[in-house]
Each structure stands twice: as structure tokens, then as C-alpha cells.
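Standup notes
- DV: blocked on the single-chain target, sequence here:
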Amino acid sequence: MINLKDDIQAGVVKKRYILGRRNENEDGVLDIGRYLALDRSSGSHVAIDALKPHAILICGKRGYGKSYTMATLIEEISLLPDNIRQNLSSLVIDTMGIFWTLDRGNDPQKELLQEWNMEPAGFDAEVFVPAGHVDEYRERHIEVTPFSIPVAQLHGYDWCELFSIKTTSPLGVLLVRIIEEMRESNESFSFEDISSRINADDRSDDVTKMAAENYLRTAASWSVFEKDACGISELIRKGRTSVLDVSSIEDKVVRSAVVGIIARDTYNRRLKERRSYERMAMGDEDIEQKMPMVWMFIDEAHLFVPSQGETLASDVLINEWVRQGRQPGLSIIFATQRPAALHPDIISQSDIVICHRLTARDDIEALEAIRPTYMKENIGDAIRKMGLERGIAFVVDDTSESTHLVKVRPRYSWHGGNEPSALNERR
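- DV (later): unblocked, structure below
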């Protein structure tokens, strides 16, 4: 493993640079790689601050390392000293089903790891999947934990948005009225319970009731919402990494709803926890911090915060996490191969941008539109300097108002995002 302190070569001490941090403290950092010199040799170590909340954007065309770099950050959080790691929790929103391999060592790149004085190693990560899809994973010998969201957690208006139903239509009025009445009891309920209440309703016609039942049957088939939910309270735990695999949720609207619900629940819980943090800082010994600070990683981020239109996750991710997440201690890391398809606020509000190779003009222009004044060259020219080598990244650090060309270190764990080969070789 690369020494995380100063690198001493030929009697010369090379400083480790820490992005996202203003002071000289070297505790609590995520080692992402090394500077890349003009002659393509490796220079000083480069790390990212992990003590404070951050909004980070990782972008790059397919196959050039964005998911790989994201996994590197996940690994680094797991490698933090125990006194720091126990105050953090990592939640990975996995849209492609590729992060379950975190627990397996990176044997295919063993020789590359040796060049970095590293060895293959797996990490403790719990994989959560929708409750109705657990058997599919276990048949493939992938150990997973069932996950579901309480039906009662969504308001009637939320269900109408999920179903694309106007709340002022007879069907929308029926769903909102019945569900809100049931939520007032503060008791859990199922889709069957909602159907029973709808059938007993004497204020709606039969056609509207049958339409409502059809929508509820569709919602039940998603295998995401249940009366007695499981897993949601276990996603955020001190010192742990949780992977929420949403790749089995085919409906993009439902997928964004799940992410939005989890993001809002986490935000609200951290707001309350921040008060406990302040009491502890004031010296109150009777207060214990129950919920850690959260680092949420979202792959294929343009699916949830698109440049055009909105999803059920857009509002909470942009307003609560990106714009206001620093105060409650929330860090968010977006990865996308299409910056042009991403909401511009995600790009402009990110304090660290890690850009791998891009060639599409509109993607480069999307980044160029938010180019900071302290950059001496345009982003397109900086990207061209990276060349064709995978794992090279152009990094913009808004905290120090600086830019860097970095070679990202190899992963300790198995990369599940490699393209499959028709040779079908066992590695």
C-alpha cells in the first residue's frame, strides 16, 4: 500500500496535496492517486479531505474510469482510522449492479497494484436489493439483504406523481383523500388495505375505483413498497458501507422515487442529528451522536438530476443535498458519462470536479460553461492533455482554487464495471 505520509525518493521529500481542505492537517484524507508530470511520470500523492462535507462530480466517457474512481473513494473511506470512520457512513446508489464486487480482491490487476506497493483486498460492504428480487441474486451466489420502503411513507400526492395522475382528477382526488386519511392514523398499511378502503368508499364511482386498484396492483409488482418495510433503517450505519442496488427496478420513475425517498429521509434525520452535534460541542456529556455523517455516491447521476425536466429525486438532491447539505454533514458524489445531460446546478455547485476523458463537444461545453475564473486554460485543452490512457483525470478544486492532472490509483477491490468479453474467460 502506498505510504499516505510524505513520499521520500532520492532524498527528496514530496508533499502530499490535499484537495478540498484549506489547513495543513493531514488527518482524515482519501488517497486518490498521484500527480501526473508532463513526461507521464508519477509525482506527489494527491488526496481529498474527508473531515468536512463535499459535493463532488466525477465525469468521463464510457470506459475511462468514472465508476472506478468512485469505488476508489468508497475504498478510502473504509480505510480511514477507526476514530474517523465511525463518524461516517457510505451509501452507494448502484444503478448498474456493479458495486457488489467490493468484497472481492482485485486479482486481475495484481501486477498493477504491485507497482503501487499495494495488494488486492476486499471490503466489508452490505448489498441491499428490492425485497422481491433477493432470490435472483442468491441464485447467482451474491449475498444480499432485502430492502423495501413503507407504503405509508408516501403521501397521496407522491403516489399520484409516481402514477402520472393529476391530483385534481377524480382518480387523483380519490387516492389522495384515502391515503391521507390512512396516514393520519400513524399506523402502517399495505396496498391491500388501501384497496379495501377504496372499495368501501361511497363518494367515488366504480370505474374510478377499478382504475385505482389497477394502479395499486402495478405498484405492488415493483417489489419495493411493503406494509412492514425492511432494510431502510440499516442503510446508514456508523463506519459501514451500504450498496443499494436499484438496477433491478426497471421503471425509471420508481427508481428515482426510491432514491428521492432515501435522500429526503437521510437529510431530515441528519438535520436533527446536527443539534446533538452542537450540544456535544458545547460539552453536554449526556448527548450521544446516533447517526453518522453520510457520503452518498450516485452512479449514472443524469438519470436522477437531468438537465431537462425533473425526477422524483431532483428536488431533494439539488436543494437539500447539494445546496444545503454542508450544514447537516452530507457529502454527495455524482458520476456521469454525460455532463451535458446533468442539471447545471450539479456542475456549478460541486466543490471538486474529477474529469476523465471526454470527447463529445456538448459535454465539454457543459463543463466549460462553469469554468472558474482562476483557470488559465479552457477545460477542453486540459482534457486533451490527458491523452488516451485510462485512469487519468483533470481535477478542479474550488476550495484551493486550483487545477491538477492526476493519475488515479488502482482499486484494491474487484472492478465490476469492466466490459464483458465474448471470450468469457474466468479471471
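- Follow-up: The radius of gyration is 23 Å.
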